Structure formats: C-alpha cells, structure tokens
Amino acid sequence: TVGPGGVRGIARDVTDLRVADIQRNRALRAQQIFNNLRVGQSLPEQLDDALARIGELCEARWLILMLENTLDPLRYGWTAPDAARPGEEAAREWAGLLDRRARQELYRRVRERDFCYGTDLHADCGAPAAAPDGAPRPPLAYAAVAAREAGGALHGVLVLARGAADAFNPWDEIPLRLIANQLGNLIAQKYLESQILVQNRELAERSRRATEATHLKSRFLSTISHELRTPLHAIIGFTEVVLRKTPGLPPRRQKNLETVLRNAEHLLTMIGDLLDLSRIEAGKVKILSENFLLAELVQDVATTLRSLASRKRLELRTRLADPGLRVVTDRAKVRQILINLVYNAIKFTHEGMVEIAVESDGHTASIAVRDTGIGIDGAQLPLIFDEFAQAESNQSEEARGGAGLGLTLSRKLARILGGEITAVSRVNEGSTFMLRLPLRIEWGQLSQERGAKAPPLFEVDMFDNEIPWEEIEVDDQPNEV
Hints:
Blueprint (H helix, E strand, L loop, with lengths): L3 H32 L7 H15 L4 E6 L8 E4 L8 H10 L2 H14 L1 E4 L2 H5 L14 E9 L5 E10 L9 H73 L5 H31 L2 E10 H18 L3 E6 L5 E5 H17 L5 E8 L3 E8 L25 H4 L5 H11 L3 E7 L3 E9 L4 H5 L9 E5 L20
Helix pairs in contact: 1-2, 1-6, 2-6, 6-7, 7-11, 8-9, 9-11
C-alpha cells in the first residue's frame, strides 16, 4: 500500500519530468529559430522575424523587445496572428497598453532581477488602471527577461504577455532566458558588424584621400622640379664655365663662385631626394636588374668620394672578402645607397678613417660602412631614419646642413631591393651602417606576380593596387652626392 506521501512524491517526479521535457523542446525550437534566420538581413528585419517565431513558440498574445541605451525602450513588437497587428502596429498597441513611464519602470525592474513574471502587468508597472479612453484595462499575465550577450552585457528586455487566465510560471524561466540570451547575442553580433562596416568605410575613405593626396603631391613635385631644375642647371653650368675659363680670378670672387656652385648642387640633390621619396610613397618604383661585380661598384663609390675624404685628411679604404662576388639587383640604387652612407660617414668624421667592407654568407651580401666620427647618441639612434630627422651634434653649420632625407631614402630603397639597413653607434667612437641585400633580387616576390619570368627592367608595385601615377622625369646625376 502506498501512503499519501508516496503518491504525491511519484506525481511530483512525473510533473518534473514533463516540465523538463517541455523546457528542452522549447529550447531546441528556439535554437532553430535563430539558426534559420536569413543571412544578409538587417538587424530590424532579423528581430521582426525572430520575435514573430518566438511569440508563436511561447503562445504569447503580445511580445515586445525593449532595447538598451534608448530614451524610450520601445522598439520591436509583435501580436498574435489573430490580432493581425504585426510590427509597428504591435508597438503602437503596446504603447496603448503601457505608457512610457510604465515601460521604463518595467525595464528597470528587469535590469535588477534579470527575470520577473506576474498576473497583472499594469499594476506591477504602476500603469493607470484605465485606458486613455476611460475603459478599464483587463489584467495581463506577463513574463520579462533580460537579453544579455555571452559576455554578460545587457542589450534589451524581452516581454511576453497574454490573458491573465493563462499565467506564466517559474518553469518558463529557463527557456525564456535561453531565448533572450540568443537575442542578446544576435544584437551584439549585428552591432559589431555595423561597427566594423563603419570602420571599413572610414578606412577606405581615408585610404582614398591619402592616395589622392599622394597623387597630387607627385604631380606637384613633377611640375615644380622642372621649374627648379632648369634654372639650377643653368646656374651650375654658367658657374662652372666661369671658373674653368676665367684664369686669374681674385681669390674672393673665386670663393664666392665656388660657394654658389656648391649650394646649387646641394639644392639639386635635395630636389632629387624629394622626387625619389615621392616615387616610393606613390608605390611605383622602377627596378633595373643587372648582374655585376659588387667589388667594382664599391671601388667606384670610393673613387667618387675619395677627393672629399682627402680634403678632410681622412683615409677612405675598402675591404673585400671576395673580390669576385656577383649580385643581381639594381646597380644604380645600390650605388645611391652607398653614396649616401659613405658621404654621411665622411661628413661627420674629422679624423681617422672611413671603411667600406663587403662580406657574404652565400645568400646575402653585407656591406658595412664604418667611421671613426662623432657617433650618435643611443636615444637618437632609432630616429635617424625618419624623414627630415637629423641627430643633434656640436658640429659646424656645414656638417649640420642637409634636409635629413638621405638615410630615409636609403632605407626605403634597401627595402625595395629586399634588403635592410641597420646602424650601431657610440658617441665619440664612431658608427657602423650595415646594408644587407640578397645576392639575387626576387622579382616575383616584389611584384607579387608568381610564375612570371623577371625581365631586365620591371616595376615594383609596393601596394598592389591601382594608384594613378604620372611619370616624373628625373635628371639623374649619379656622381652627385
């Protein structure tokens, strides 16, 4: 014989199993609702679709989603099909059921408790007992649950309501929490997607403006360089003629003419550096691939600058580990880099020597330019490759002259050729600038066109995009510093 307590225990177990089964089925059906949302829909479209399906699943008469961070948390509503008032009409119907103050009160309560339910929505929210037209409001059973994303952030409150005779109960909390959390994740994902979309648009616009600015700067430099180079070449040419063909010039006049010539050549070099940087920033650089002896190029650079070193009574020497070392790269650009490095070494060295040393490990050629000059402070060393940057020194005005573009241009050219420039230095002991280059330039990697055969002359598109470019005519003078 089973006593009264035993019968009640069995009934309670059966009821708990039935409730658990209902909760599980609702959770699975709710998951299917979100899995079946159409890709590409906007957030309002997906919310309207999801709310309609959730209302049917939970057998609600009215359903509303109030969003976080809004002055009036009334955004998306749904009514049962027999009411025939979906979407905005449902929201208006809700506005009639609960005034703004009552909606805000309900939102506050759910934010504090995460889940609440009752049998009289109007009374619990402090809404008037009568409608605006004076008719009494029928009691409504309701359940409200916080819509949170996986990280716990609140994105809104989901409210379901139906007739008081069909009240919600504690068993509804678990499936409703799952549904609300899915809504929170959906809102969070859409918010993130919209932020990414806005950021991508902003980045694209900034890129477009930067590209346009680079193009305009290139056109400006192309135009102004012609206007500046033409008179400079005339000044240089006439000054050289006067110095060469006018013997017996007074020392003061000859010194003045030499100053004019030196400054004109210096200005011409600065214009050339600016043009080269402009080409690099525009992403279009022509590479002339040549097979040549590196020792010959180093000797050529030493010969070009030896007279400058001699005037300062410096020893300019070369050290070649392998005189027969050959490289396949752009000879003119390697020469331009070395001219800049050796010229700087001579410029900032007052006594001692400057050395160009070449070594190779079978894959990379290493060219070190060492000097016994003033050196560079460790705090300034990371800045010397920045545009228009110059390390502070106690040198003369002549030693400090220049636009601060030589090292910037040299490093950019080295990287275009697949190499790198590094520097080590100690104050009052000297500096070493190391240029490392691959023995053979890999055109396929630079141009990003795989499977193509490298021609002797090709262009490197560093940004791999369509940048409008107008050819800049540069009067190359390889012997100029």
